Amino acid sequence: MRSGACPKCGSREILEGVSMNTLGEGGPAGLIAFRLEETQGFLKKSTRVEAKAWICGDCGYSEIYAEEPGKLAERWRAGDR
């Protein structure tokens, strides 16, 4: 999708970087994010990055990407999970 064309239908009408929200009973409850957690004794340390969607404007096919994948990858390589 980031190439500018939908892999399902070939459309070039791509909605880029659309924010996603979780829905609670009263409406939006928060943004969708990717999270890695490390537990050290009683403490938990989290690394979170926001998730954004690329959506085809014709067929609705969607892909989700981490906004800062390097931040998660660095934490992953360090073994903090």
Quickly count the helices: 1
Range of helix content? 10-25%
| Oligomer description | single chain
* Main beta-sheet annotation: 4 strands, antiparallel
| Strand content range | over 45%
**For the residues shown, what is the average pLDDT?**
83
- Report the principal-axis shape: elongated
Order of helices and strands: EEEEEEH
Radius of gyration: 16 Å
Number of DSSP strands? Answer: 6
What class, by secondary structure content? mainly beta
What does this structure look like?
The protein contains one helix and six strands. It is mainly beta and 81 residues long. The protein has one domain. The strands form two sheets. Strands 1, 4, 5 and 6 form a four-stranded antiparallel β-sheet that branches. A two-stranded antiparallel sheet has the order 2-3. Strand 2 and strand 3 (27-31) form a beta hairpin. It is elongated, with a radius of gyration of 16 Å. The model has no long low-confidence stretch (mean pLDDT 83).
